[in-house]
Amino acid sequence: MSDLHDEAYTPTITASDVVYHGAVWNIRRETFDLPEATGLVRDMMAHNGAVAIACVDEQEKILLIQQYRHPVRARLWEVPAGLLDVPGEALIDAAKRELAEETDLRAGRWEVLTDSCLTPGGSSESIRLYLARDLELVADEDLHERSEEEAGFKFRWASLDEALEAVSAGEITNSIAQLAILQVARILRAEAAGESTRTRSVDAPRRLVDARESSSDRPRD
């Protein structure tokens, strides 16, 4: 087995304070010491973490959702995703909840594709990406009423060739959508060739810190 892997490490933290309380995210300032340097000060967005889902249907198409994202002033094609905003909720349960809320779907087969740090230089955000298959609609009485930006969702089932071309052409810029498309392409090609797909089970451990452990980072009412 390869020894190529990230290493969890907790430095000596000498100060940690929320310096800005935002509407959605807080900014935390920490002072810490490393063996190679001391007295380091960094500001970071305190993020709950998230889950995302690559949904693949029987025709081997991937489900994309178009959603408005204000910081970049664009409607981006993404995959279903959502925050880990329920204390103590298992990641797989969060993924199932978000899938139902955003797409009116549930899946009979789940696998872990990746764990990712999105902007580790300035945010604690991490995201677990799942592969979901054997899809079916949720019952009418369980439909979720979408609001705010989600009320403007558009949905599209895209072939892998179309999705890969859109990524290569710079037409799909959301990093998690790009990762989902590339990972699904890897999985489906391996399966077609009878090769190992190297996915992980839904209870696979992750090396990343669960930011939900710190309730003090939640925005104030």
Describe this structure in words.
With 221 residues, the chain is an alpha+beta fold. 18% of the residues lie in helices and 38% in strands. It has three helices and ten strands. A four-stranded mixed β-sheet has the order 7-4-9-8, sandwiched between helices. Strands 1-2-3 form a three-stranded antiparallel β-sheet, with no helix packed on it. A hairpin with a 4-residue loop joins strand 5 (61-69) and strand 6 (74-78). The protein is globular and about 55 Å long.
Structural key phrases:
NUDIX_hydrolase-like_dom_sf; NUDIX hydrolase; 10 strands; 38% strand; 3 helices; 221 residues; alpha+beta; three-stranded antiparallel β-sheet; 18% helix; hydrolase; four-stranded mixed β-sheet
SSE topology sketch:
Elements: E1 12-21, E2 26-34, E3 37-46, E4 50-55, E5 61-69, E6 74-78, E7 81-83, H1 91-103, E8 105-117, E9 126-137, E10 154-159, H2 160-168, H3 175-192
Parallel strand pairs: 4-9
Antiparallel strand pairs: 1-2, 2-3, 4-7, 5-6, 5-10, 8-9
Region (Disordered): 194-221
Organism: Brevibacterium picturae
Protein name: NUDIX hydrolase
